[in-house]
Amino acid sequence: MRIDLHCHSTASDGTDSPAELVRNAAAAGLDVVALTDHDTTRGYAEAVAALPVGLTLVTGAELSCRIDGVSMHLLAYLFDPAEPALLAERELVRDDRVPRAKGMIAKLAALGVPVTWEQVERIAAGGSVGRPHVATALVELGVVPTVSDAFTEEWLADGGRAFVEKHETDPLEAIRLVKGAGGVCVFAHPAAAKRGRTVPEAAIAEMAAAGLDGIEVDHMDHDAEARDRLRGLAKDLDLLVTGSSDYHGSRKTVSLGAYTTDPEVYGEITRRATGAFPVPGTGGA
After folding, report:
1. What is the 3-state secondary structure (H, E, C) of 122-163?
2. Residue 69: left if φ>0, alpha if ψ -120 to 50, beta else—which one?
3. In this predicted structure, what is the pLDDT of residue 285?
4. 167, exposed or middle or buried, with CB in 10 Å at 0-12, 13-18, 19+?
5. Calculated CA dihedral for residues 117, 103, 87, 284, nearest 10 degrees
6. Secondary structure (DSSP) of 5-27
7. How many Cα atoms sit within 13 Å of 194 on the Cβ side?
8. How many Å separate Cα 170 from the centre of its chain?
9. Residue 239: its pLDDT value, please?
10. In the prediction, which pLDDT does 284 show?
11. Are residues 131 and 158 in contact, defined by beta-carbon separation less than 8 angstroms?
12. Best CA proximity match to 172, nearest among 164, 182, 180
């Protein structure tokens, strides 16, 4: 089995629609794909309706969190999307994305970069607005060559010249909310240092004690040394180890299935979840 547990669609900052994502996942030879858009479940219905035979969909979301001043992302899988407490927190985070983007645009204007809200809104195309949309605007204007090049201290990285904070959930609270909604929690790309400051291992241990299920080890932003270190940490903390592409369509160079999760780990994730269950494809439109 080939299992990719971290993918984005146009419901947040990917470039494939949810329907295109599942079709492309099947074409890439995946058996299981997770839809984990940022702080939203808006793409679920379209993805399920288009799900090809032979492909299983894991519903999820990538939650924006912050601990000790460091931003981090928590992958939440197979939770009940209608559970009120987690839904309210996702809406709070999502609603803060627009003023945050406008704040970044204002900072860029002060730096002489003519990004506009209309441009970012067009790029987002109704998705949950995030830094990648602002980064794409910088690419369109020729300020940086790629989206990744916008995530530096010069521009949009944490603490960068045009960075603006947004509401982010304490991960211990996020874990509690996800568990309350019957879901499973995995810390996304914990050693992605090029994105900014990373969470110290002591904090990961605290999250493990609070119910964190796993850490995403095999990821494009982790080198071999980081992966080895994280595998050791996962063993010490009795955490599951996942691998994922963090696919964003054409917004990133990584391909679907570039990194995958072991079938036994996937099986354990599904066994732990009680809020929702994987959806088998039935040959959607």
Report:
1. HHHCCCCCCHHHHHHHHHHCCCCCCCHHHCCCCCCCCCCCCC
2. left
3. 54
4. middle
5. 30
6. EEE--TTTT-SS-HHHHHHHHHH
7. 10
8. 16
9. 98
10. 60
11. no
12. 180
- According to DSSP, the residues that pair with 61 across neighbouring strands are 76
Q: Output Rg (C-alpha) for the chain, integer angstroms.
A: 18
In eight-state DSSP terms, residue 251 is G
CB atoms within 10 A of CB 25: 30
Render 216-250 in DSSP notation, one character per residue: EEE-TT--HHHHHHHHHHHHHHT-EEEE---B-GG
Q: Which two tokens stand for residue 74?
A: 């928590």
Q: What percentage of the chain carries pLDDT values higher than 70?
A: 99
Q: Yes or no: say if 168 and 131 are a contact pair by the CB < 8 Å rule.
A: no
Say yes or no to pLDDT of 184 above 70.
yes
Can you give the length of the chain in residues? 285
pLDDT above 80 (res 196): no
CB 177 within 8 A of CB 89: yes
- State the DSSP code for 213: -
- Three-state SS for 84-125 is HHHHHHHHHHHHCHHHHHHHHHHHHHHCCCCCCHHHHHHHHC
Phi-psi region of 233 (alpha: psi -120 to 50; beta: other; left: phi over 0): alpha
Segment 32-81, tens digit of pLDDT: 999 999 999 999 999 999 999 999 999 999 999 999 888 899 999 999 99
Residue 134: what residue type?
Answer: V
Average model confidence (pLDDT) across the chain: 94
Tokens representing 144 are: 């940086």
